[in-house]
Specification:
It comes from Bacillus benzoevorans. Keywords: Membrane, Transmembrane, Transmembrane helix. This is Divergent PAP2 family protein. This protein has about 150 residues and is mainly α. It has a domain at about 5-85 and about 125-150. It has five helices and no strands. It has helices spanning about 5-25, 45-60, 65-80, 85-105, 130-150. Helix 2 runs antiparallel to helix 3 (about 65-80). The longest helix has 25 residues, at about 5-25. It starts with a helix and ends with a helix.
């Protein structure tokens, strides 16, 4: 497999693993399931694409078309991670709170039919800008380390 792909995958896996201790130090709760969830610090999306872009820049050079493609792709992914996906997560928070609001409004009325309560939607979808930046910086470090170790001696 391509060494740049290895760098990106290593960065993604390490970023996901890093979310667990960072959450523990921030919230005091140990949540190993964060490894399999989206959102949070650092952004594994940003880490993966910035690791690949850094690896390509060091291997092929900044003037290369490979670097240009990787950079533009990475910027789009990072913009999406903190933009559209974050907005979707905020909308999901509001949708999940609607059931509670409706119950408060109609607490005295009885409803003639029974409705199954839908499962709550996943709320942590996107990233705060600092999580994207944190992932990007982490990815650049991993990409540079992977490049150093991949050089033939």
């Amino acid at each position: 497999m391509n060494k740049g792909v290895y760098a990106a995958l290593i960065s993604i896996i390490l970023a996901q693993a890093l979310k667990i201790p960072l959450h523990f130090f921030k919230a005091g709760k140990w949540k190993p399931d964060l490894f399999f969830q989206t959102g949070g610090m650092p952004s594994s999306h940003s880490a993966g694409v910035s690791s690949l872009t850094t690896f390509v820049a060091l291997k092929r050079g900044i003037p290369s078309i490979d670097f240009a493609l990787s950079l533009i792709y990475g910027l789009i992914v990072m913009y999406d991670a903190q933009g559209i996906r974050r907005q979707t997560g905020e909308l999901t928070l509001k949708v999940n709170d609607m059931e509670e609001l409706v119950d408060k409004i109609h607490h005295k009325e009885s409803v003639a039919f029974k409705q199954k309560t839908p499962a709550k939607l996943k709320e942590m979808l996107g990233h705060e800008p600092e999580e994207v930046v944190g992932g990007a910086v982490f990815g650049m470090m991993v990409g540079a380390i992977c490049y150093i170790f991949s050089k033939k001696r």
